[in-house]
Amino acid sequence: MQKVWKILEEPPQSFFEEFPELSKTVAILLYHRNIKTQRQIDEFLNPDYSVDIHDPYLFKDMKKAVKRIFKAIDKKEKIIIYGDYDADGVSASVILVSTLRAMGYDNVDVFLPHRETDGYGLNTRAVEDLAKDGAKLIITCDCGISNTKEVDFANEKKVDVIITDHHTIPPTLPKAFAIIHPKIEDEPYPDKWLSGGGVAFKLMQALLIKHKEKNELLSNGEKHESHEKWLLDMVAISSVADMVPLIGESRTLTKYGLLVLNKTKRLGLQKLLLEARIVEQDGSMKRNLDTYTIGFQIAPRINAAGRINHANVAYNLMMAEKGTDAVDLAFELDQNNKERQTLTEELFKKSIEQIEKNQMNNPVLFVIGSGWPTGLVGLIAGKIKEKYYKPTLAMSDGEKEITGSGRSIEGFNIIETFQENPELFLKYGGHPMACGFTLANKEKLEDFKTYMISKYNEKTKDQDMNPTIKIDAEIKLTEVDWELFDLLENFKPFGIHNDRPKYLTRDLEIFDIKTVGKEAKHLKLTVKQDSKIRKTIGWSLCDTNGDINWCKLLKIGDKIDMVFEIDVNEWNGNRELQLTIVDLRKSS
């Protein structure tokens, strides 16, 4: 689908005059990211852990939650950390279990639901089993805010529930003992964009503050501050994997988390990085670990556990204390990931067949398969959404129910649409752009399809729904140099609400063209403008499953316009600037 190229306007002259110490390039990029005050600029360009991390007790229920946890410790009650089965939930669970054990409390266990048999969030069967096993306190991680019925059931069983979550708020809040959630109404906590792991981290900070009042060190001899900072790798993984906006406190936590990740002491992560060939056999890094490493290499492997097998594999890897255990678990995760890739590709092709058969004109797309792994439907929905740029619901038709996952596009809030007709669902949860759900019964499928299409048409009738690429500036190839690259480095870590800066340049002549990669899916162009020559890379631009196979459309001598990001290519100790193609067109 043809994308709209939108060059963002420069800031007014008054903005440049207000911050004369900023270079024009930096000022423009900050303005485009809605960073317009001195406080925001300082926090963004120079995140300071001692200044920009908020007091966890700003959460209105934090004091209550901490008091209940220490009561459980004093009475030796069994505590269950109930996490989600994705990278965010696993990271959050690791943070809390590690902290309670470091405080010397061992009567704590973790429960991660099985995606196929338990589904997302709390479920009554699991709560009942945990209660029978002696649990008196359940602390949720990255889930729970939509589980009103299940929390009521826990209360009946005399089990208190503390919810730590960050997902979309339902119309009725669960009657939990305490709720730590940055987005609930009247919540004074200033940062609203924490990941599930970030919220768990705030609870962990509050516990350490309370513990330190009477204890100079943790039970394992570690300083409280040291324990806190060594868990930042888990926060970085959770924030990037769950695609929360990397602004404000989340940005600061992620930036420092990446520093920890690059020197992690966690055995499981070390072995996972080795298995993924991110580090050499001697432990040396091939490149600094960044948000790309997490998003495309670490998080998919952690998520693969819950998609193919059980999230316990990923959790046990992150908690591993023996090298042999870490090696075996890292290998298992990598095998899960390879299986996930193969299965996803197979089901993606079947999904395309369904769509091309009778849905090409539909504004919302639906694909469904008998017995499709529920752990893969979200990936399928995401790939279809990217291919057709339409909201997509991918579903698995099981023996008793239909379970699915949705991915949306800018301008259509999918979870809000679900909330307007909850009778269609047995359960659901998620964010404006992504959701998970189980239909109330199989007979609701056609009603569900009709409803979603009707709501999409209603909500978007006055909007331009064409995909848009926001471009920071139009420049010449001569302006792409190491000075500009170094300026852009100040904007890392990149992520949601802080995309890599994008630039447009026109009338490039193709000097050389080739395909790269095992399946020749990637396009490598050498382009020339006036006397300047640059190398570029376009990922999957020659993929036969893509919208356009540019390798068949381009030839040496063609003139093209290109939207790109500025990156660096490193090999054998050499470094050169490289343009990563975002989109391109023939100049004609």
Q: Largest beta sheet, briefly?
A: 5 strands, parallel
Shape summary: globular
The name of the CATH architecture of the domain at 56-232 is Alpha-Beta Complex
Please give the share of residues in helix: 40-55%
Number of helices: 21
What's the gyration radius in Å?
25 Å
Query: What ranges have pLDDT less than 50 throughout 5 or more consecutive residues?
Result: none
Strand order in space, largest sheet: 3-2-4-5-6
Proportion of beta-strand residues? 15-25%
**Under CATH, the topology of the domain at 56-232 is which?**
inorganic pyrophosphatase (n-terminal core)
Query: What's the overall average pLDDT, rounded?
Result: 94
Name of the top-level CATH class of the domain at 56-232: Alpha Beta
Strand runs, count: 18
Keywords: Exonuclease, Hydrolase, Nuclease
Organism: Candidatus Magasanikbacteria bacterium CG1_02_32_51
InterPro entries: DDH_dom, DHH_sf, DHHA1_dom, RecJ, RecJ_OB, SSDNA_exonuclease_RecJ
Domain DDH: 78-215
